[in-house]
Amino acid sequence: MTAKKSELKYTLFFLLPSIIILLFLSVYPTLEAIDLSLHNRNLLFPWRNDFVGADNFIRLLSDRRFLNSLKVSFTYSAANVILSISIGVVLALFTHEYLKGKLKSLLSFCYLLPFVIPRVSTGFMWRLMYNPLIGIYNYFLRLIGIGPIDFLGSPNLAFFSVVIVDVWQWCFFIAVLLMASMELIPREPAEAASLDGASRLQVFRYIIFPFLKPSLVLIIYFRFIESLRSFDIIYNMTRGGPGTTLEILDLYAYTIGISTGQEISYAASMSLIMLFITIVVMSMVSKRWFPE
Fold first, then answer.
1. Which DSSP string do the residues of 116-161 spell out, in sequence order?
2. Kind of pairing, strands 39-42 and 45-51?
3. What's the pLDDT band for 186 if we cut at 50, 70, 90?
4. Residue 246's CB: how many other CB atoms inside 10 A?
5. Which letter does DSSP use for residue 26 in this model?
6. Could you tell me the residue ranges of all domains in the chain?
7. Residue 262: which pLDDT band, with cuts at 50, 70 and 90?
8. pTM greater than the 0.90 cutoff
9. N or C: which end of the chain has fewer CB within 10 A?
């Protein structure tokens, strides 16, 4: 009994620094955001701090721009998750099955390059490439008699143009993660299934996919949460436009809380709504993939 208590003390001692950092960087800001959302703070009048209760949350229910930004956020995230993971799986399977040795290592290294580029730089770089006058895509389109096309100025094209950028930066990194998981899969079941006449699709569905399932779930978690925070790319490429086509919740909260509105309490209530919805969605995904 004494040994167990001593072991528990040592465990708590070594965990204490991490717990303190977690409380300072995560729990405290969340509690501060809750307190802020229950008041009416404005950066133009910082001395005012009137308690308003749930008024900010009630106001959100009738704010069409907030509801639109919520819709854009989840549509944008869903598109990013589906496309980046689908392309990542295809790239991982192709590289794992058909490339070997130094060529595979070189290609894996190249896959990591888009991911290490800072997202702000990525936004500026792609905005330049999309430019209707000097962009490289419109240069080639003009060579075949098409264009110029304003990729970021058209409401019908801007959304998909920015999604392509986000997918480009992530799908190769996802492929590398999945390739690392595939290296741990025993080859015997797949080879036996192939000898029994199973197609490549059947081998992937019934043998490879179950092994990859834990990795895919973690990637979906991380990718979904990360895509909700695409403020940097969207802001540097379109500022959320044209109109509110790409105004995700982060961008609207920034606009209403810091840029023009100065209503930081109202912006805090938006962030808490997004936090709540994200927790609910992730909990539903967990129950679907890992039922008790």
1. HS-HHHHHHHHHHHH-TTT-HHHHHHHHTT-----TTT-HHHHHHH
2. antiparallel
3. confident
4. 27
5. I
6. 64-289
7. confident
8. no
9. C
Location of structure tokens 């999309």: 130
Q: What angle in degrees, to the nearest 10, is found between the helix axes of 119-130 and 136-143?
A: 30
CATH number for the segment(s) 64-289: 1.10.3720.10
290 close to 81: Cβ distance less than 8 angstroms: no
Find tokens 């690392």 and name the residue.
180
Give the HSE-up count for residue 124: Cα atoms under 13 Å, Cβ half-sphere: 4
Counting other chains too, the contacts that 226-232 makes at CB distance below 8 Å and 24 or more residues apart are 226/170, 227/76, 227/77, 227/80, 227/81, 227/166, 228/73, 228/77, 228/274, 228/278, 230/76, 230/80, 230/166, 232/119, 232/120, 232/123
- For the CA atoms of 225, 229, 234, 240, the dihedral, rounded to the nearest 10 degrees, stands at 110
* CA 89-95-96 angle, 5° bins: 85
